[in-house]
Design goal:
It is built from 3 helices and 9 strands, in the order E-H-E-E-E-E-E-E-E-H-H-E. It has 185 residues and is an alpha+beta fold. Bound molecules: cobalt (II) ion (CO).
Length: 185
Protein backbone atom coordinates (compact mmCIF):
# COMPACT_ATOMS: atom_id res chain seq x y z
CA UNK A 1 0.00 0.00 0.00
CA UNK A 2 1.25 3.47 -0.86
CA UNK A 3 2.12 5.71 2.11
CA UNK A 4 -0.37 8.47 2.80
CA UNK A 5 0.37 12.15 3.34
CA UNK A 6 -1.30 12.92 6.66
CA UNK A 7 -2.94 16.31 7.35
CA UNK A 8 -0.94 18.60 9.67
CA UNK A 9 -2.58 20.10 12.74
CA UNK A 10 -1.45 23.70 13.14
CA UNK A 11 -1.06 25.99 16.16
CA UNK A 12 -4.49 26.78 17.56
CA UNK A 13 -5.66 23.17 17.18
CA UNK A 14 -6.57 21.75 20.58
CA UNK A 15 -5.02 18.31 19.95
CA UNK A 16 -1.58 19.95 20.12
CA UNK A 17 -2.37 20.79 23.75
CA UNK A 18 -3.33 17.26 24.76
CA UNK A 19 -1.14 14.99 26.85
CA UNK A 20 -1.32 11.71 24.96
CA UNK A 21 -1.98 8.51 26.92
CA UNK A 22 0.28 5.46 26.61
CA UNK A 23 -0.64 3.40 23.59
CA UNK A 24 -0.80 -0.31 22.91
CA UNK A 25 1.38 -2.01 20.32
CA UNK A 26 -1.44 -4.42 19.52
CA UNK A 27 -3.23 -1.81 17.47
CA UNK A 28 -3.66 -3.36 14.03
CA UNK A 29 -3.36 0.01 12.37
CA UNK A 30 -0.04 0.83 14.07
CA UNK A 31 2.20 -0.34 11.24
CA UNK A 32 0.36 1.70 8.61
CA UNK A 33 0.31 4.70 10.89
CA UNK A 34 4.09 4.57 11.49
CA UNK A 35 4.70 4.33 7.75
CA UNK A 36 2.40 7.30 7.04
CA UNK A 37 3.84 9.38 9.90
CA UNK A 38 7.40 8.86 8.61
CA UNK A 39 6.38 9.55 5.01
CA UNK A 40 4.65 12.77 6.07
CA UNK A 41 7.71 13.92 8.05
CA UNK A 42 9.97 13.53 4.99
CA UNK A 43 7.45 15.13 2.66
CA UNK A 44 7.40 18.15 4.98
CA UNK A 45 11.21 18.22 5.19
CA UNK A 46 10.98 17.72 8.94
CA UNK A 47 13.44 16.02 11.28
CA UNK A 48 10.68 14.97 13.67
CA UNK A 49 6.91 14.54 13.79
CA UNK A 50 4.66 13.61 16.69
CA UNK A 51 1.35 11.73 16.42
CA UNK A 52 -0.86 14.58 17.63
CA UNK A 53 0.58 16.81 14.89
CA UNK A 54 -1.26 14.57 12.42
CA UNK A 55 -4.38 14.24 14.57
CA UNK A 56 -3.59 10.92 16.28
CA UNK A 57 -3.57 10.26 20.03
CA UNK A 58 -1.04 7.42 19.89
CA UNK A 59 1.82 8.29 22.25
CA UNK A 60 4.69 8.20 19.74
CA UNK A 61 6.84 10.22 17.41
CA UNK A 62 9.30 9.70 14.58
CA UNK A 63 12.65 11.48 14.19
CA UNK A 64 15.51 11.55 11.69
CA UNK A 65 17.94 14.18 13.01
CA UNK A 66 20.52 13.60 10.25
CA UNK A 67 18.03 14.05 7.46
CA UNK A 68 18.38 17.81 7.00
CA UNK A 69 22.15 17.74 7.09
CA UNK A 70 23.15 15.00 4.73
CA UNK A 71 22.08 13.69 1.38
CA UNK A 72 21.38 10.16 2.37
CA UNK A 73 18.83 7.43 2.74
CA UNK A 74 16.03 8.07 5.22
CA UNK A 75 16.62 6.50 8.64
CA UNK A 76 13.42 7.08 10.62
CA UNK A 77 13.60 6.29 14.34
CA UNK A 78 10.20 5.65 15.92
CA UNK A 79 9.83 6.08 19.68
CA UNK A 80 6.66 4.67 21.24
CA UNK A 81 5.64 5.47 24.84
CA UNK A 82 8.92 7.33 25.45
CA UNK A 83 10.04 8.35 28.94
CA UNK A 84 12.83 10.85 29.60
CA UNK A 85 14.57 9.19 32.55
CA UNK A 86 17.11 11.94 33.27
CA UNK A 87 18.69 15.01 31.73
CA UNK A 88 21.60 17.33 32.39
CA UNK A 89 23.60 20.19 30.91
CA UNK A 90 22.21 23.04 28.87
CA UNK A 91 22.10 23.94 25.19
CA UNK A 92 20.38 26.64 23.15
CA UNK A 93 19.26 26.11 19.57
CA UNK A 94 16.95 27.74 17.08
CA UNK A 95 13.89 25.55 16.69
CA UNK A 96 10.99 25.42 14.30
CA UNK A 97 7.98 23.14 13.99
CA UNK A 98 5.84 21.75 11.18
CA UNK A 99 2.79 22.79 13.24
CA UNK A 100 4.05 26.38 13.53
CA UNK A 101 4.88 27.38 9.94
CA UNK A 102 7.09 30.46 9.64
CA UNK A 103 7.96 30.56 13.34
CA UNK A 104 11.51 30.11 14.65
CA UNK A 105 13.02 30.93 18.03
CA UNK A 106 15.87 29.99 20.32
CA UNK A 107 15.01 27.42 22.96
CA UNK A 108 17.10 26.38 25.95
CA UNK A 109 17.04 22.72 26.88
CA UNK A 110 19.13 20.12 28.66
CA UNK A 111 22.06 19.10 26.45
CA UNK A 112 21.96 15.40 27.32
CA UNK A 113 19.09 13.04 28.04
CA UNK A 114 18.54 9.41 28.84
CA UNK A 115 15.39 8.18 27.16
CA UNK A 116 13.62 4.85 27.14
CA UNK A 117 11.08 3.92 24.51
CA UNK A 118 9.50 1.01 22.72
CA UNK A 119 10.50 0.30 19.11
CA UNK A 120 7.92 -0.74 16.47
CA UNK A 121 9.19 -4.32 16.99
CA UNK A 122 8.13 -4.16 20.63
CA UNK A 123 11.61 -3.91 22.13
CA UNK A 124 12.12 -1.57 25.11
CA UNK A 125 15.32 0.43 24.63
CA UNK A 126 17.18 2.89 26.88
CA UNK A 127 19.81 5.21 25.48
CA UNK A 128 21.70 8.36 26.38
CA UNK A 129 21.80 11.00 23.65
CA UNK A 130 23.28 14.45 23.20
CA UNK A 131 23.71 17.07 20.48
CA UNK A 132 21.05 17.80 17.88
CA UNK A 133 19.40 14.40 18.31
CA UNK A 134 18.76 15.15 22.00
CA UNK A 135 17.17 18.47 21.05
CA UNK A 136 14.91 16.85 18.44
CA UNK A 137 13.81 14.12 20.86
CA UNK A 138 12.94 16.67 23.56
CA UNK A 139 10.98 18.80 21.07
CA UNK A 140 8.96 15.78 19.94
CA UNK A 141 8.55 14.47 23.48
CA UNK A 142 7.08 17.86 24.45
CA UNK A 143 4.42 17.42 21.72
CA UNK A 144 3.24 14.24 23.47
CA UNK A 145 2.87 16.31 26.64
CA UNK A 146 0.89 19.04 24.87
CA UNK A 147 3.84 21.44 25.01
CA UNK A 148 5.12 23.55 22.08
CA UNK A 149 8.59 25.07 21.72
CA UNK A 150 7.13 28.57 21.81
CA UNK A 151 6.03 27.87 25.42
CA UNK A 152 9.72 27.65 26.33
CA UNK A 153 11.16 30.79 24.74
CA UNK A 154 12.10 33.97 26.62
CA UNK A 155 9.44 36.53 27.52
CA UNK A 156 10.86 38.95 24.96
CA UNK A 157 10.84 36.31 22.22
CA UNK A 158 7.24 35.45 23.15
CA UNK A 159 6.25 39.09 22.68
CA UNK A 160 7.93 39.14 19.27
CA UNK A 161 6.14 35.97 18.18
CA UNK A 162 2.75 36.94 19.56
CA UNK A 163 1.30 38.38 16.37
CA UNK A 164 2.40 35.46 14.20
CA UNK A 165 1.01 32.99 16.74
CA UNK A 166 -2.28 34.86 16.96
CA UNK A 167 -2.53 34.87 13.15
CA UNK A 168 -2.09 31.08 13.07
CA UNK A 169 -4.56 30.51 15.91
CA UNK A 170 -7.11 32.78 14.22
CA UNK A 171 -7.44 30.18 11.44
CA UNK A 172 -8.74 27.58 13.88
CA UNK A 173 -12.40 26.61 13.68
CA UNK A 174 -14.04 24.78 16.59
CA UNK A 175 -10.65 23.87 18.04
CA UNK A 176 -9.42 22.44 14.74
CA UNK A 177 -6.72 23.96 12.52
CA UNK A 178 -5.80 21.41 9.89
CA UNK A 179 -3.80 21.70 6.67
CA UNK A 180 -4.18 19.07 4.01
CA UNK A 181 -1.64 18.50 1.26
CA UNK A 182 1.75 20.15 0.93
CA UNK A 183 2.30 23.88 1.41
CA UNK A 184 3.27 25.99 -1.60
CA UNK A 185 7.02 25.97 -2.12
CO1 LIG B 1 7.18 20.33 16.51
Amino acid sequence: MKPKLLPIHIYGDSILREKLPECSLDDAKLKDFIRDLSYTMYQRDGVGLAANQVGSRLRMFVIDPEWAREEREPNPIVMINPVIESSDGETENEEGCISLPGIYANVRRPARITISYTTPDGERVTETVEGFKAVVIQHEYDHLEGVLFTDKVSTLAKLKLKRKLNDLAAQAVDGKNVREGLPDA
